[in-house]
Amino acid sequence: MGKSLSIWLFAHFVGVAVPWRAVRQTDGAALLAFEHERLMALAAAGERVPPVLGFDGFALQTGDIGPTLDHVLHRMPEPERLALMCAASADLAAFHARGQWHGGAQARNLTWDGRHFARLDFEERLQPGLPLATVQMYDVLQLLLSLARYLDVLGSQAVLAVLRAYSPSAEARGVSTAPDLSEFLRRLLPRLLLVSRMAAWSSRLDGSRELMRLRTVLEGIAAFVRQSQPAAQTLN
Length: 236
Fold this sequence. Notes:
Elements: H1 2-13, H2 20-23, H3 28-44, E1 52-55, E2 60-62, H4 69-75, H5 78-97, E3 110-112, E4 117-119, H6 132-146, H7 148-151, H8 156-172, H9 181-199, H10 203-206, H11 209-228
């Protein structure tokens, strides 16, 4: 119950009105059936996901698709990390450009075998209840925040680079319906900045590692929004 509530509250805070039923799953069999359905559909569409080895309605067995991106980044030399994070962002953009969505796009749910990214964990029931563009923007935010621990040591310019890696990819494919990442982040930024300001009231929170990482991400988001908006527009 507590985990479901925290996910629901966070999603609504960032402007993604996830239905309660999408995060509060009490029927294990229905949850497995939904994930099995998504894995089969994505595989049929040519997407890289774990192969389904068996499903009897009560247990879902899948094959291995390599180490997670989080694991690879943790073991990788620091100077090499940014290129891989940007590649993951561009790969997510290509995934979205093909009309897909993940629902759990954190680094722990992506894998990298040295040549290709793949995706796992498709338990979130976000479609068809939410607009596709909204769910896709939620994917981008999930990926970005999950990379914060690696981006923080590289600075806000690294955050900007990861966001830039996502944006041109969909545009380069001529997808007119590609979601507007800069507009989504422009609306979200004041809410996240409020969290940063409120945390500054507490000396314990103000110096926490998590908040420092968030502030680095916010600086990168702000730079991305500034560079994406017409000169006449300014942030509130």
